Structures are given as C-alpha cells and as structure tokens.
C-alpha cells in the first residue's frame, strides 16, 4: 500500500528525466559528457531524496544506515576520528612536508628513475583525463575496479559474493558479509596499480632492463593518478560506502591510509629518510599537544 502524504498538496517538481542513450550513441560519448551525465544523475538522486523526505511522513523515509548502528559504536567512531585519526593525519602531513622541504638534492631526486617515470605516468593520465579523446571506457574501468576491490575484500574477509554488476551508471555486489574494510577498501587500494606492480614486477624479475624498470614506474604513476582522481571524484557523490560508516570517520581513515601508502612509496624511492620522518613525527606530536593544551587553558580563562 502506498504511504499517505502529510498534506494533499502537489509533489515538488521533479527534474526532467534524461533520455537513455542507446549503445551506438554511448560508443561515441566523450569523457566530459559522461562525467556531466553522472553528475546529473547524482544531483537528481539527491534532489529526489530531499523532496521525498519533505513530502512523506518520517515513518516512511528511508533509514540512515549509520543511525542504525548502536549508540556506543557511533560514539566510539566519533571519538576515534576526533582524538586519534585527526591528530595522526595532521602530524603525518606536517612531517611529510618537512621531509620534502629538507631534501638535500631535490633535482637529483626529481630526475631519478623511480620519481621521474612515476611523474611521467601521472602526467599521461592528466592529459588523457582532460582530453575529449578519452572514451567512456575509462569511467567503466574505474567502476569495474571499484566493485572488484569490494569483491576481493569480501573474499579476504572470508565472505561470499553472489552477484556482481557494473555499468556506466554505477555498480554493486551482493554479499553475505560487510565490514569497514569491505566498504572502504576501494578508496585506499589502487587495484589497477597493484595488478600492474605484480605483473610488471614479475617481468622485470625475469628480464631486468632499463625499459622494464621505466615501464614499471610509469605504470604505477599512471594508475596511482587514476585512482586518486576517481576517488576524489566519487567521494562527493553521496556514496553509501561512506555514510553507512560515518562520513567524518570514513574520510579521515581514507586520507590516513592513502598518506601511509604515499609514505611507503617515498621511502622506496628514497625521497625521505624514514628514521628522520619518525623523529619529525615525535617533534610535531609534542608541538600539537602544547598547542591543544594552551588552547584549552585559553578557553578555561575565557569562561572562568
């Protein structure tokens, strides 16, 4: 039975539905038109949820999955995000910036094989990502990799995937298990970068050469930029992966893990000194602690 509205008034005007393109038209769609269509779909979805929430009774509104979690779980995640993840991200960011500014030979690091070819790979992605020549296959590639990462995370968590679906409008998997790692793994695991590193690493192991090494790092740079671009593009699109675990908590955790992956790469490329980095982290922790303490005493002085 359909729910009865609060008032017999008219529903708010719906956005005009966009016509579905046939397969022939989609083949010739450029990158910009696909992104525009996906942004329009996300806006339409958000608008309809807001309009429905205002029109129908609250008892018929879709429940927020995060609010269905126990109260102590929500409080614990808020506490971890505010008092652990947020300070950690600040400390690591400051320490990384200090390490990059203290580089003894910046030009030598820039033109080293790992850094130079990684940057070239990232530049190739930037050119392709901003070019009209890019077809819709790149967007589909990301969506497929996103859902594939979910599926791999399910199997790593000893779960089972019963359905796997991807399209230009989105994707989903059906599984008998869900947890924080499964929900957020696509946002900090560059799946294509991992696959490329494994395959190129095997080739380089059996056929070590300058060309193989250059292709290894260039591919890592390309797929890392691909991952960062689409992750930054997807996060504002009202993702249930984030909302069901708390947006603030999820964003900080994603940022922290991506920071740690970046730190590992910088250590492999010998751009930063790992022992000195940890020393800087200790120094910045003390500095942050004194700042917080002074701010706390300042507030106490205002209200005393």
What does this structure look like?
This protein is mainly alpha-helical. Helices cover 69% and strands 4% of the residues. Strand 1 and strand 2 form a beta hairpin. The longest helix is centred in the first third of the chain and has 31 residues. The N and C termini lie far apart (59 Å).
Describe the protein's topology.
Elements: H1 23-27, H2 31-55, H3 71-101, H4 106-110, H5 113-129, H6 137-156, E1 161-167, E2 170-175, H7 180-188, H8 191-206, H9 210-234, H10 240-243, H11 247-268, H12 274-303
Helix pairs in contact: 3-11, 3-12, 5-9, 6-7, 8-9
Short summary:
The chain has helices at 23-27, 31-55, 71-101, 106-110, 113-129, 137-156, 180-188, 191-206, 210-234, 240-243, 247-268, 274-303, and strands at residues 161-167, 170-175. It has 304 residues and is mostly helical. Strands 1-2 form a two-stranded antiparallel sheet.
Helix content: 55-70%
Apparent shape: globular
Which value, in Å, is the CA radius of gyration? 24 Å
Largest sheet: 2 strands, antiparallel
Strand portion, in percent?
under 5%
Helix/sheet category: mainly alpha
Straight-line N-to-C gap: 59 Å
Low-confidence stretches: 1-29, 45-61
